[in-house]
Specification:
mainly alpha, 1 helix, single chain
């Protein structure tokens, strides 16, 4: 269960990543605190 929750968290953080440079960019570790993500 812990691994599943970690994977879900990381997927969300990557999806909310800031668009910097040509690659993925830094993940948004606090994405769950943003009002747009209240449904999670």
């Amino acid at each position: 269960q812990a691994v599943r929750r970690a994977i879900d968290y990381l997927h969300g953080a990557i999806a909310a990543a800031y668009p910097l440079g040509g690659g993925q960019g830094p993940v948004d570790h606090l994405y769950r605190l943003h009002p747009a993500n209240d449904e999670k």
